[in-house]
């Protein structure tokens, strides 16, 4: 990996200096090496950033990274292109903005997705707050495991990656549900929900779940103290782009935007901050809904039906460009399109109508499958691919 070096580097001692650059599980404490430098992922508490924090993040993205900001499919925010020797300075800046956990362990445990339209004082906020206070009571879980706090009238995170969920029944009863199970356990208070989440996490570890890796794959029957008694209310759809009762929802093409575009989105004096979502869109609290240059606000925009990972040169595993090609193909391919730099398929795990996959500098096509599926067509150059779709 070649990492750009920057002048004016800063050195931090103590715990920060002990953190090591790892090739996995990106966080602020553990950035991940990528083709264009380090990837630094911030996990906003409650899925929320007030305006000051978002502006601080944008400034940091420009000063220490490429200036690009990405929303991940777990509702986190990541900065790209950070030089290895710039990382301590970035850490210090993010710490001043209140965006860094005290320890890497705390950051790793705080894997909590929150329904983005929670309201102050509602049960989603209460449960998230209680769980944050009890992070140290959780066992050590695999890095990808996490919680979805989704206790509104109808759940909205059911299709998103999480292992332990809090939802509501159709008659408003709180419910704790293990991922992969259709029914959950009713509880009578936010405190009881958090007790049960923690108990379930310990049961997962103690009953050999680490071998399975995720709750959904852990086939052992749940213990008797987690009866699968009730179903959640019918889920609702992800937040639509446009006006929302708390502001306005905007989309990011491929989940990515320049920092200055996000700054523009929150420039109005009545905007108080944002809520991140796992759907490459964010809710701007207090926004009027006026279009913002560089952001999507049309629910029919062709970019919304395309997934594309960063590809070459941003990812070391990619041998082809992805996003420029995806823009070229937008609107010319029927159904959902996934352009993946390699068969890992980071941008989308589910099957798509058309999946374009990079392979040794050429492109393969998988129809009605995933990036790791058997190709239906192989060995196309970019121009042959465009010819194939008549672009
Ligand atoms: S799918 Fe492959 S090329 Fe794309 S980001 Fe993931 S590892 Fe990199």
Notes on the protein architecture:
- There is one protein chain.
- This protein is α+β, with helices and mostly antiparallel strands and 391 residues long.
- The chain folds into four domains: 14-100, 2-Layer Sandwich (Alpha-Beta Plaits), CATH 3.30.70; 118-231, no CATH class; 242-285, no CATH class; 302-388, Sulfite Reductase Hemoprotein, domain 1, CATH 3.30.413.10.
- It is 23% helix and 24% strand.
- It is built from ten helices and 21 strands.
- It has helices at residues 14-18, 51-64, 87-96, 104-109, 123-133, 190-206, 209-212, 259-265, 323-329, 382-388, and strands at residues 32-34, 37-42, 48-50, 68-71, 77-82, 112-114, 147-149, 164-168, 174-178, 183-187, 230-231, 242-244, 247-251, 256-258, 273-276, 281-285, 306-308, 337-340, 352-359, 362-369, 377-380.
- The chain has a six-stranded mixed sheet.
- Strand 4 and strand 5 (77-82) form a beta hairpin.
- The two termini are 35 Å apart.
- It binds iron/sulfur cluster.
- Iron/sulfur cluster binds at residues 309-311, 315, 317-318, 340-342, 344-346.
- Residues 309-311, 315, 317-318, 340-342, 344-346 line the site of iron/sulfur cluster.
Strand content: 15-25%
End-to-end Cα distance, whole Å, is: 35 Å
Major sheet size, sense and barrel closure: 6 strands, mixed
Overall morphology: globular
The overall pLDDT, averaged over residues, is 91
Detail the poorly predicted runs: 1-23
The main sheet orders its strands as 6-7-8-9-10-11
Relative helix content: 10-25%
- What is the total tally of β strands? 21
- Spatial extent as radius of gyration: 21 Å
Count of alpha and pi helical runs? 10
- List the domain count as a whole number: 4
- Going by helix content, strand content and strand pairing, the class is alpha+beta
| Small molecules bound | iron/sulfur cluster
């Amino acid at each position: 990996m070649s990492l750009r070096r920057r002048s004016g580097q800063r050195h931090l001692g103590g715990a920060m200096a002990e953190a090591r650059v790892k090739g996995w599980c990106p966080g602020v404490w553990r950035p991940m090496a990528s083709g264009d430098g380090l990837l630094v992922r911030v996990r906003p508490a409650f899925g929320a950033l007030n305006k000051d924090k978002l502006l601080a993040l944008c400034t940091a993205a420009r000063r220490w990274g490429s200036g690009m900001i990405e929303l991940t499919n777990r509702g986190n925010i990541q900065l790209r292109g950070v030089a290895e020797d710039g990382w301590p300075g970035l850490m210090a800046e993010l710490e001043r903005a209140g965006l860094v956990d005290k320890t890497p362990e705390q950051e790793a445990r705080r894997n909590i997705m929150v329904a983005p339209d929670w309201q102050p004082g509602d049960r989603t906020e209460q449960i998230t707050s209680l769980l944050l206070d009890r992070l140290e009571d959780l066992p050590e879980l695999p890095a990808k495991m996490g919680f979805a706090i989704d206790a509104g009238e109808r759940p909205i995170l059911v299709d998103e990656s999480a292992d332990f969920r809090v939802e509501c029944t159709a008659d408003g009863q709180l419910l704790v549900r293990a991922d992969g199970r259709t029914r959950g356990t009713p509880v009578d208070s936010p405190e009881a929900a958090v007790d049960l989440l923690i108990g379930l996490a310990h049961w997962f570890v103690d009953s050999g779940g680490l071998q399975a890796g995720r709750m959904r794959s852990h086939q052992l029957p749940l213990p008797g103290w987690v009866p699968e008694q009730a179903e959640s209310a019918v889920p609702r759809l992800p937040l639509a782009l446009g006006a929302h009762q708390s502001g306005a929802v905007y989309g990011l093409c491929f989940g990515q935007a320049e920092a200055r575009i996000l700054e523009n989105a929150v420039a109005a004096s009545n905007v108080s901050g944002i809520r991140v979502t796992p759907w490459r869109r964010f809710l701007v609290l207090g926004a009027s809904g006026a279009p913002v240059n560089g952001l999507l606000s049309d629910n029919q925009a062709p970019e919304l039906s395309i997934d594309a990972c960063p590809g070459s040169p941003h990812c070391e595993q990619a041998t082809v460009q992805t996003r420029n090609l995806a823009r070229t193909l937008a609107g010319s391919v029927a159904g959902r399109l996934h352009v993946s730099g390699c068969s890992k398929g980071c941008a989308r795990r589910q099957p798509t109508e058309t999946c374009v996959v990079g392979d040794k500098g050429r492109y393969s096509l998988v129809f009605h499958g995933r990036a790791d599926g058997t190709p239906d067509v192989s060995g196309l150059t970019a121009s042959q691919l465009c010819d194939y779709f008549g672009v």
